[in-house]
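QA checklist item 7 of 12: single-chain prediction sanity check.
[x] sequence parsed
[x] length recorded as 138
[x] structure emitted
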Amino acid sequence: MMAETDTVPLPHERTYRDLDAWSHAMTLAEETLRTTRPWRASDQFSIGLQLRRAAISIPSNIAEGYSRRSPAAARNHVAIALGSHGEFETQLELARRCALVDEATHLRLSTQCALVGKLLSGLYRSAVKSAEGSTRRS
């Protein structure tokens, strides 16, 4: 039987909201929504939808993984977020090639995306170490 503190964060404990990766991924999602909002309908519902879903998936998976209070769940969901990050990079490049975003917008979003990618990679390495540590203790 798990103690309550194993499943529910105490007020002084860190949560996903304290993670730089989550915070910067939220900024990327916000900027993506603002960028794609004025696109024409056909682009909104094709690449715009895919771009928004990938951007939203990154912070959502970080939150879900860390909310489960399990190192293995955190690692798994950060891995999913990394996959969404790759999707986002690809879709952003396609949007640039199709002239849906100008060079300045592409640079701004890809710079933010690169930062999120670095933070996700670090978070993944940390989650792997944490999961390995909890496996050894069991």
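[x] summary fact logged: The domain at 47-133 is CATH 1.20.1440.60 (de novo design (two linked rop proteins)).
[ ] second reviewer sign-off
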